[in-house]
Amino acid sequence: MTSLRIGIDGDALRTPLSGVGYYIFNLCRELDALLPEASFIAYSRLPSGAVLLPSPRWQLRTEPVVALRRLPSFLWLKTRCRALCASDRIDVFWAGRTLHPRLDGGVRTVCTVHDLNHLVVPETMRFQSRWSDRLWFRGDILSADRVLANSRGTAERIRTMVGAEVCDVVLPGVRPRFYLSQPVGEIELRENLSRLGVERPYLLSVATSEPRKNLDAVIDAFIELKKDGKLSDYQLVLAGPTGWKNRALKQRVEEARKYGLVLVGYVPDESMPILYAGADALVFPSLYEGFGMPVLEARSCGARVVTTDIPELREAGDEYVVYVQPTLDGIKEGILRAISLPKPPPAAGRPWKESAQILARALRDGQDSQLNSMGKTDKRELRTRITRTQLLLDCSLSLINRTGAHYISEDLALAFGGKAILRRWRLLRRQLPGGIARKIFGRLMLREIALLGTSDRFLWPEPKAVKLKRLFLDPLYVKRSRLESSDIVLCHDIGPISHPELYDNGTIGAYKKAYAKIAMARPGMVFVSNTSRLAFEAQFGTDFRFLKAIPLYVRTGALAGHSEPISGIEPPFFLTVGALETRKNQRRVIEAFGQYGFAKRGVSYVLCGARGTGSEEVMAAAAGTPGVKVLGYVSDAQLRWLYQEASAFVLPSLLEGFGMPALEAALHGLIPIISRNSALSEAVNGLAIQVDPHSVSDIGEAMKSVLALDEGKRDQLRNALVTHAHSATREKFLAEWADLISSELH
Fold it and tell me: How far apart are CA 640 and CA 662, in angstroms?
């Protein structure tokens, strides 16, 4: 048998091993036995002491010019490594980190894709890595002879986001040391943990300290649960090497030590099973993963796991894992749920040998019969024929909006952003900017919209050489983008057109131009209620590609979790949730509250929400009316408490596209007082006391009547409201969107 000469990207084996390096090293160990006839050559810019080879059989070719060892890894791979491979006359090159040197002379290339960070979460990456992937990732995949993925989720993203097909999936395996044949004894456990400064009980997080791992949210969740007395005796143990973009995280770690945070840093592989086995739960709410090795290893050791609900991490986990949204509330709820469950049995992992056998076949038989005689250009052309339409999700509204529309936008981004291109103004990025950066970007975006309007100059960026279907989550943002009839626009309401008296002239003018552009293009239109759809049809007709209503749902944060009382608020009280603005009609409710003398009866009126157009009038009315309390923005935990303790929900809005707060109130059995024949009525299926929103006396009488309801009628209405609200789920909403997007892309 002719000896097979295999070259690999040796920089992947740099010590200490990263997650990708660990994957590659374990496969190399198995290849050593599976391919006894092969010769292995690892190419690295690093000196020999910095690279971990699996056995003496492996040759290491390092950069002989010391000065060139400082080149960025992938730049060295593309230049110097290519020359070294040519001189060694290798048969096949395994690009374990996806990028490869584009070798000529009949050298086959097998590339493994671990993730699509530069497309899904580019803001979390180091500058060099991000730009290397932007320059070469897609081209290297399309020019490779075989493309492998580390998970089915990654394979699907390659298909939808890159337009290439994966030949095989090579799942990570588990080393035998992670299969604990019997529970670890308490004495052995305590002794091993004490060497790391760890005491039970503890939560464990295993991750490189970089933004994608979401460690700041883990720490915040731990501290809040500590303060609430839910984790009083617990430590939080952070294990993993130092990463990048973590200056603020380092400061947060130091501040959290007083709450029981223990930073153990990089832990050798042989010590990890004990660390997993002793933990009450592994907490791994990463923003995105190509697979999630810690989840697989922790479950092999019989640990409870809390991790993010994305396909790749579900692939790494099993039915015993608690899957959450990677938000503060989601993580907190996941931790409490996990530690309340019985300890699960260890998962049956996959040995590395099985995975290596798939890789070995690809290296031996790496030439697809159709590709054997093709050059690199022909291969690229063949593979790009399978490129499908790519979804561009415009989430620009989240830079300026913190109302229900923002939460809808972010839920759609979380559900479909992994397979789509996300755009926030001029930022093609998945993660929403925070703090002052968000405010600055939002103001710059609005300034640009005001200055350039619907001009074709300097339109917002979108990827080239990709067929796009754009989904706009608010009509305003079509003004600065290309818009075609094949696109989709989500519309909450047409208030600036149908109710101009509620808006300032700038808002009215901006939306008039946006809707004029929409009327010209005639794209598909989605509405959050049939009420909004009918209002749109009355203004613009029905000559659009489609007109469809997908009703909203109860937000995840309102469903479950602990409640946090608010100091100074005592039942009984009426409650209004929504932005403080003219269209929400809080001023008339305040007037009715005062006229009917509820404060004298010991009843308060509580308003919470961000300030909007007309908030000055609302605040002035509240200040002049005893018993009215304006809270501003509240947390989900505080909002749950308000819903649970309120006597009634009051929102006789002058205009709503849907009315999510009314549905949230219904979930808690809180009887709503709402506008007659409005979207709010549709949201709660008519189960409400409906009023004329322009009549102060009508509102006041309704507030009076709800307090006087007898318990039998109250319970009957409450039960009906709760039943209806439970049917309006996020899953149902996303399933309807998934069906629509799937039909539009295929």
Answer: 13
Q: How far is residue 214's CA from residue 240's CA, in Å, rounded to a whole number?
A: 13
pLDDT at 1: 44
**Predicted confidence (pLDDT) per residue in 409-456, tens digit:** 877 887 776 667 888 898 876 667 777 888 899 999 999 999 999 998
pLDDT of residue 418: 62
What band does 367 get if pLDDT is binned at 50, 70 and 90?
A: very low
- Determine which helix (DSSP H) or strand (DSSP E) holds 149, and give its type and residue range: strand 146-149
CA angle at residue 512 from 506 to 514, to 5 degrees? 105
As separate numbers, helices (DSSP H) first and strands (DSSP E) second, the chain gives 28, 25
Helix, strand, or coil (residue 42): strand
Quote the CA–CA distance of 249 and 255 in Å, as a whole number: 10
Cα(32)–Cα(42) distance, rounded to whole angstroms?
13
Q: What is the CA radius of gyration of the chain?
A: 29
Burial letters for 374-401: b for 16+ Cβ neighbours within 10 Å, e otherwise? eebeebbeebeeebeebbbbbbbbbbbb
Using CA atoms in the order 537, 538, 543, 548, what is the torsion angle rounded to 10 degrees?
10
The pLDDT assigned to 572 comes to 96
CA–CA dist 100, 110 (Å, integer) = 9
Q: Are the C-beta atoms of 163 and 384 separated by less than 8 Å?
A: yes
Whether the per-residue pLDDT at 180 is higher than 70: the answer is: no
Answer yes or no: pTM beyond 0.85: no
Sorted by where each starts, the structural domains of the chain and their CATH numbers stand as 5-169 (3.40.50.2000), 176-340 (3.40.50.2000), 390-549 (3.40.50), 559-728 (3.40.50.2000)
- The Cα 233–Cα 304 span in angstroms is 18
Q: Are 487 and 509 in contact (CB under 8 A)?
A: no
**289-327 pLDDT tens trace:** 999 999 999 999 999 999 999 999 999 999 999 999 999
CA angle 54, 363, 138 (to 5 degrees): 100
| Rounded CA separation 258/251 (Å) | 13
pLDDT tens-place string over residues 376-407: 455 444 444 444 578 899 999 888 866 667 77
